[in-house]
Each structure stands twice: as C-alpha cells, then as structure tokens.
Amino acid sequence: MIKTDIIIIGAGPVGLFTIFEAGLMKLRCHVIDAIPQIGGQLKEIYPKKPIYDIPGFPSILAGDLIDNLEKQAEPFQPGFTLGERAENIEKKEDGSFIVTTSEGTQHHAPTVIIAGGLGSFEPRKPLIEGLEKFEKKGVEYMVREPESFLDKRVFISGGGDSALDWAIYFAENSTLPVGLVHRSDMFRAHKDSVARVYQLQEKGKIELYTHSEVKNIGGNDALETIELHQKDREPRTISVDYWLPLFGLSPKLGPIGNWGLEIEKNAIKVNHSLDYQTNIPGVFAVGDVNTYPGKLKLILCGFHEATLAVQTCYKIINPDKKFTMKYTTVQGIQGFEKVV
Ligand SMILES: Cc1cc2nc3c(=O)[nH]c(=O)nc-3n(C[C@H](O)[C@H](O)[C@H](O)COP(=O)(O)OP(=O)(O)OC[C@H]3O[C@@H](n4cnc5c(N)ncnc54)[C@H](O)[C@@H]3O)c2cc1C
C-alpha cells in the first residue's frame, strides 16, 4: 500500500503543478496516470507546438513546459504510478481514501485531487477478431518497458508519431529488424521521423510495409503470427513475438464517472467559489476535468485551481495547525528528503 498526503490522479500539467504547490505546504504527493509517461495532452497530443499563454513565457513548446514542471516538482520527491488507470475509490471510516488502479496497486491518503483532464487516454484498438485473447500476451498498445521488446521479432502498425518513434527506437537498439505496417504511404508523424524511417529501411533495420494492414492474428497461449495484407499481393503469415497496433489514444472519463461524483457534460462539478472540492468531501477536481460556471479549459486556470485546492487539503490533514503563506522569494524552496 502506497501512503501519501495527496493522491493526484493525472500527470498532466495541472497534476504536476499540484505537486509543487502541495510541496510548499509540506504535503507529499503520489501521482497516478493511465499512460506510461507524464505530461497529459501536452506530451501525448502536441509536444512540439508552442504555447503562448503561459504567464512569463512569451512562447514555450508544450513538451518543454512539461519538462520544466517536472523539474519544478522534483524537490518535493513525488511518487508515480504510471501506466495504470485509477479504477476505484473507497472512503474509509476515518475519512481517508484508498484508490486502486487497473493493475491492483493501492494508494492510501487523506485527500485526493483529480487532475484527469479529458479522462484517461485509452488506446484505439483495431477491429480484429479474437484480439482480446492476445492482449498483454504479444499484443501491446503502449510501450511501458522498451527493453523487454529488444532482440524480439516486433511488428508495429500505425503512421503517427508514436508508431514511428518506437519503430526508430527498436531499429536502433535491437539486434533484429522491426516491421512497420501502415495503411498508406503518407505518414502523420514529424517529417524528421519519416526521413529517419526511410534511412533505417535502407540499412535493413526497418521492414517497411506501406498500403498494408494486419487483418488477422494467431497463436496458442500467446501471439505467434500476424496476417499481413499488402496492396496487390497475396496475404501472408509472419511469425512475431509482439505486435504493437499504435493507432493513437482517445480520452475517456472512464471509471471516475462511476465514483459517485456529480458529473455535468462529462466533467466533475466543483465548488468554484472556494476550493474546487467535489460533492465528496476530501476529493477535489482541478484542470480540464472539472466544470463550474465560467470554466475555461486552459492550463493557467488549472494552475490556479490546484493552488487553492491544496490549501483545503492542508486543513484536512492538519486540522489543528494554521498555515501562514509565505512568498517563495522569502522562504525559498525547502524540498523533502528522498524516500528510499
Ligand atoms: C492541440 C491542443 C492545443 C492546446 N493549446 C493550449 C494553449 O495554447 N494554452 C492552454 O492553456 N491550453 C491549451 N490546450 C488545452 C490544454 O492542453 C489543457 O487545458 C491541459 O492539458 C489540461 O491539463 P490537465 O492536467 O488538466 O489534463 P491533461 O493534460 O488532459 O492530463 C490528464 C491526465 O490524466 C490522466 N487520467 C485521466 N483519468 C485517469 C484515470 N482514471 N487514471 C489515471 N490517469 C488518468 C490522463 O491519462 C492524462 O495524462 C490545448 C489542447 C490541445 C489538444
């Protein structure tokens, strides 16, 4: 059981900034995210786009903003459970909460801040009969531990950044070539990545199949083969250890929608005049995931909401103490010792 002061659900920009604001109040945080990397929409959807409305930054790339937020949170030694979706919440008699993930990891804290954005990012799955049978047995929608795919026969389907980035990574690090299958010969990925794929194809490190689709998969206990359909050619069966259909992720409010929270238009209603607390005392919602009159889905609004939410978390955790806010220019940053 992981114990902390605040369980944060969502490692997007707002969840990451919550760690910093909580840390200033000497509150420890543990962050859960359904995807294996931090950064929410900024890393998943638009890492290379410049953002122009972050105060103090005339322009900053979304990916760089996440790197900065991670660095800013570092002194407060946050814990992370990544690649696992927060599935259930249970309120204990003493008012504290246990949040359990899709993989069964349990987290215990007196307060919970949901910074779940548009919801957890779920993989877009191909329509193939019997697909579920091989999920996590050769069919993978996300790369959690890249090393486990090295020196194996890996095929990737997709034409976006994720598919090409991983194809390049495996081609450069594995002793075996990697297969890359795409429905057309036009890629949505960054043009530098597309150029690199063609270079690696020439070196025999990527086997590129354009105008192609995987239409069937087979195996006994685990995945053993894929059936590749290539334009103007007979279908053929190829032996593989892994097939990674990387067709992107789509956000879904998911299990949080069944936690007894007041939901309006797919977002969580909060007390906006005070602290962004939900109808469940001790559970807060900040950032894109919440709604209230006049709500704007902007990063800077989420930062403000998180700052106020942690004030009430402090009062719940320290009912007998008074917190006097001091400017960071006055008190500096006093981080936590690393827990080993
Ligand atoms: C193309 C584009 C451009 C944009 N440009 C701007 C801009 O210029 N300026 C601006 O202010 N805003 C912009 N936005 C909006 C901005 O990205 C959002 O306001 C911001 O991402 C909200 O941050 P967040 O932390 O609330 O949520 P998110 O970034 O959505 O992160 C939420 C995280 O929570 C996780 N999560 C959700 N549910 C669960 C669960 N049950 N278990 C575990 N994890 C879960 C998700 O996997 C996700 O990683 C833009 C958005 C897009 C798509």
Explain how this protein is built.
The chain is α/β, with parallel strands linked by helices and 340 residues long. The protein folds into two domains: 2-122 and 250-331, FAD/NAD(P)-binding domain (3-Layer(bba) Sandwich), CATH 3.50.50.60; 125-247, FAD/NAD(P)-binding domain. The chain contains seven helices and 23 strands. Strands 6-3-2-10-22 form a five-stranded parallel β-sheet, covered by helices on one side. Strands 1-9-8-7 form a four-stranded mixed β-sheet, with no helix packed on it. Strand 2, helix 1 and strand 3 form a beta-alpha-beta unit. Helix 1 runs parallel beside helix 6. The model has no long low-confidence stretch (mean pLDDT 94). The structure holds flavin-adenine dinucleotide.
